[in-house]
Write a structure and sequence with these properties.
The protein is an alpha+beta fold. The chain contains 4 helices and 9 strands; from the N terminus they run αββααββββββαβ. The chain has a single domain, classed as Jelly Rolls (Sandwich).
């Protein structure tokens, strides 16, 4: 999922530990990802509404949707799509990848005013970083196909409740 551009030493340590693994993706926990510590908001994206887990701390951002199951990110019974909004203190260049994430995702990068400036399709377990082309303050992830279904595209604004 999300791995902000970490200081080189920390990044080297993470890669060093990761390279010691067996090379296979760990199986999700029986219940999937533990998302219980995340706050939840209904965020607007243009005319769409997404119920989003809010990732605003380093640890929440590092976890993201790692080990989440399709059932965990499925739309709510009323049809409201689910996703995760990554919130940063200021604009910066962001880079996400899909370590231990088995669900294909849509990813939108947005500037400080919430304007989506680019959208990417993320492939399960692909650890190739997807870096924003410009500094952004938000990243929104949702199951693949959600953005097309909801009309979410570049130029739309992400709005949060006050």
């Amino acid at each position: 999922m999300y791995r902000a551009l970490l200081p080189s030493l920390v990044w080297a340590l993470i890669l060093g530990v990761a390279s010691c693994s067996s090379g296979t993706a760990p199986a999700p926990a029986p219940g999937g990802a533990d998302l219980s510590e995340f706050s939840i908001e209904r965020v607007g994206v243009g005319s769409a509404v997404i119920e989003a887990w809010i990732a605003s701390t380093f640890f929440e951002q590092a976890q993201g949707f790692m080990h989440a199951t399709p059932a965990q990110v499925a739309p709510l019974p009323d049809g409201t799509p689910r996703g995760m909004l990554f919130v940063f203190a200021s604009e910066r260049q962001l880079s996400f990848f899909m370590r231990d994430t088995i669900i294909p995702l849509d990813l939108a990068y947005a500037t400080a005013d919430g304007t989506i400036v680019e959208i990417h399709a993320l492939t399960p377990l692909n650890e190739t970083p997807v870096t924003s082309a410009q500094p952004v303050q938000f990243a929104l992830e949702a199951p693949a196909g959600t953005f097309a279904q909801e009309g979410i595209e570049a130029g739309k604004k992400i709005t949060r409740p006050n």
